[in-house]
Structures are given as structure tokens and as C-alpha cells.
Amino acid sequence: MRKFILFLGVAMALVGCNGGKCDIAVKIANFDSEEGYAYITDMWNNRAVIDSAQVVNGGEMFFKQVKSAPTFAQIVMKSGRPVTYLFIEDGTITIEGDAAEESIKVSGTPANDAFEGMMSKSQEYMAEYRSAVYAGDKAKAAEVEAAFDAMQNEYFESNKGNVFGLFMLKQLSYSEPSVK
Fold first, then answer.
1. What is the rounded CA–CA span in Å between residue 93 and residue 115?
2. Is residue 123 within 8 Å of 116, Cβ to Cβ?
3. Could you give the angle at the alpha carbon of 91 between the alpha carbons of 115 and 110, nearest 5°?
4. CB under 8 Å, gap of 24 or more: what pairs does 138-141 form?
5. Quick one: how far is CA 151 from the chain centroid?
6. Cα–Cα distance, 67 to 18 (Å, whole number)
């Protein structure tokens, strides 16, 4: 059954590989841009470089008409220093934030919006889980863990039609014995 589910995930990704285009606008305050160039690397393809852009005005980058199959990617500086993760898919992706506060948000497409939503909820669950563990409340910790697992499954179910759904399938296949 697991092989069948993985096959469906791969098939879903291939259907989405339409070679579409996306534009990515990045504006990050307090960003040290001395390195000059940033690169989008494909996390599912040995970090192959998808595109590059010059960093201007201390933290602005514009990647125009990025041509790629939908994928999970990372923006890195010339030195390899990571900036943020994102999902490449058709549409306009906006990346904004403050490097000093480490508060970078990616939005504008279904996969990126879902990822940001899940990460926000995950932080809430992690804080609640830590509190329960530190308080020695094993029952509460187990309850929070179960709620976290259910949340991950919900994000998978509601994103089967985009690249974030494939990302979630991969994550769940590593941790869940029974991906639904």
C-alpha cells in the first residue's frame, strides 16, 4: 500500500510539472548583501541551481519568469549561506521580512501559503509540547503530539493538488507508519 501511495505522489508531481513560470520578489530588511548574488537551488535535485539574481538595495532580489517544474527550493547566497525555503510553482511569490529578527515570510502561491500556515501552527504545538514535557505532564504531551500528527495529515489532505502536498507526503512517509 505504501508503494502505491508513493507512486501516486510521484504521479501527482509529474502532472504538475508543466514547466510554468513564476516571479519571485524578495525584500528583506537588515540584510547583509555584500555577496552580490543569490541563487535558487532545487532541494529535491541535489541543490541544482534553478536561477540567480543580483541583490540590490541591501536585501532586494527579483527572480523573473523562473522556469522550473514545481519543486521544493532554497534561496542561498553566493557563499552558500541560506536565506529561506520556498516552493517553486506558477504564480507570483513574495518573500518579505527582517534578517535581524529572523522573521522571513514566503507567500503568494497555494503551496507557500500552506507551508507558512503549517509552520506557524507547528511552532504553537512545539511550545505547548515543551511546556507539557517540562511540567512532567505525559498525558498532555501525548495529546499535543497526536494533535500535531493530525494537523500534518490535514495539511497533506488539503494540499494533494500542489507541490506542498508532495512535500508533506515525503515528510509523513518518514514518520508515519500509516499515511492516509
1. 13
2. no
3. 30
4. none
5. 16
6. 10
Q: Report helix angle 163-175 to 2-16, nearest 10.
A: 160
- The grid coordinates listed for 120 are 506557524
Q: Count CB atoms within 10 A of the CB of residue 140.
A: 15
Name the DSSP letter for residue 53: E
pTM of the model: 0.81
**Could you report the average pLDDT of every consecutive run of 10 residues in the chain (180 residues)?**
41 44 88 82 93 89 87 90 92 90 90 95 96 96 95 94 92 65
CA distance 32 to 88: 24
7/126 Cα distance (integer angstroms): 31
- Model confidence pLDDT, tens digit, residues 42-51: 999 999 999 9
